[in-house]
Amino acid sequence: MRRHPFTLAEVIAVLVIMGIVGAVASFSFGAGARGFILGQTRLDLSQKAQVAMQRLILELRFVDFDPDSGALLLAIAEDGQAIAFTTRRDGTSQQIAFTGSELRLNGKVLMNRVNAFQATHSTATGELAITMNVDEVGEFTTALFP
User: Fold this and answer.
1) Which of the ends of the chain has fewer CB neighbours closer than 10 A, N or C?
2) DSSP SS3 for 86
3) Helix (H, G, I), strand (E, B) or coil at 126
4) How far apart are CA 114 and CA 99, in angstroms?
């Protein structure tokens, strides 16, 4: 019985098919990896934004008030992108400022990749509202009564 080896045409056909299957698999794997990396980046940014908001809430809960008038020792810039206040913990002056794409607390970067920051204070209700918009994640809003 005589054995017939593969012909050159058969070997080339198999190599072409394997190349096509490999290319399709690599594109699928690459898309999945890019999706994973994008999801991880969004998760990291979301967690950082939540931590930043929690830190702002913690700091702003201790805004001091004037004992004579009862008014909060709090000043919000006209554009709503900076807050200056005195804390009743130790009487120090604190500042929250949004510049460029960074949100800073007392000059130190609290969060980067911030698109927008807005603070408003209602003297009628005492509510202090903060909104922060972060790249690729979206908007974070909180309201508190210091």
Assistant:
1) N
2) strand
3) coil
4) 9
